[in-house]
Design brief:
The protein has 3 helices and 5 strands; from the N terminus they run βαβαβββα. The radius of gyration is 17 Å and the shape is elongated. The chain is about 25% helix and about 20% strand. The strands form 2 sheets. It has a 3-stranded parallel β-sheet with strand order 1-3-2, with helices on one face. The protein has a two-stranded antiparallel ribbon with strand order 4-5. The chain has about 100 residues and is an alpha/beta fold.
């Protein structure tokens, strides 16, 4: 396969996650199926194209950002984009990095 060639995902079940992805992961494990969690769907095009017959977990709805009380760390939902993160940090007079 040539580098950069797009191969579409092939999956048997897919769902948008509302609050927690653990249910979908447990289901996939119980059914002995592979699972792939994605946000925007970006990744290695050659790797994404090899995913077959599994459970696709879409994380785009998981956009929570919880900044710790001391302001030194944060817990991000799997669907957080950098623009949302930076805007949320700016509202709290915080920046990412040192």
């Amino acid at each position: 396969m040539s580098q950069g060639r797009y191969l579409p995902l092939s999956y048997d079940a897919g769902s948008h996650v509302a609050t927690d992805s653990s249910t979908q992961v447990k289901f996939a494990n119980q059914m002995n199926l592979p699972f792939l969690a994605i946000n925007r769907g970006h990744g290695s095009v050659s790797a994404l194209g090899t995913f077959k017959h599994g459970v696709l977990i879409k994380l785009a709805n998981l956009t929570s950002i919880d900044i710790a009380a001391d302001g030194k760390s944060a817990v991000l939902g799997g669907g957080v984009y950098s623009d949302l993160l930076l805007a949320t940090l700016a509202k709290k007079n915080k920046v990412a990095g040192k």
